[in-house]
Amino acid sequence: MSDDEHYVTLLLAKIDAQKRTLHYVNCGHNPALLFRSETGKVTCLNSSCAPIGISSEQVCELASAGLAAGDVLVLYTDGVTEARNDLDEEFGTDRLSALPECGSSLSAEGLMNSIFRSASDFCNEVGFTDEVTILVVKCNFDGSM
């Protein structure tokens, strides 16, 4: 067990393309974003347990979500949402959540680049102050992801 200053966040996800399901455990990490092609809306896949190391008796629950063709999963580090502009405003989850909605027709790589450019443009001359990692998965279910 660690103290309040030493812990690890983790988001572990597994996509079953045959069953069209996403199984995940989110241990205090940023919520993954799931764009639903059917509704055109983004839902947050929030934490299912505390960060690793907070409690020695921690039990993590597996969460699941059904997937459909055209759905888009976005995973990211806090360097994206905590990017600040010269007015000291954060890029934030709201701005990030709007991007899969308007960029759902892009390829996974195209959407990832669009998210990076948007956050980078937002923080402009300030630049990123933390690591930035973005992973985008488009659910095609035609044998490829």
Q: What does the secondary structure layout of this molecule look like, with pairings?
A:
Blueprint: E1 10-16, E2 21-27, E3 32-36, E4 41-45, E5 63-66, E6 72-76, H1 78-81, H2 92-102, H3 108-123, E7 134-138
Antiparallel strand pairs: 1-2, 2-5, 3-4, 3-6, 6-7
Quick summary:
The chain is α+β, with helices and mostly antiparallel strands. 21% of the residues lie in helices and 26% in strands. It is flat.
Keywords:
alpha+beta; 4-stranded antiparallel sheet; 145 residues; 3-stranded antiparallel sheet; Phosphatase 2c, domain 1
Report on the architecture of this protein.
The structure is a single chain. The chain has 145 residues and is an alpha+beta fold. It has a single domain, classed as 4-Layer Sandwich (Phosphatase 2c, domain 1). It is 21% helix and 26% strand. The protein has 3 helices and 7 strands; from the N terminus they run ββββββαααβ. The strands form 2 sheets. It has a 4-stranded antiparallel β-sheet. The longest helix is centred in the last third of the chain and has 16 residues, at 108-123. The chain starts with 9 loop residues before the first strand and ends in a 7-residue tail after the last strand. The model has no long low-confidence stretch (mean pLDDT 89).
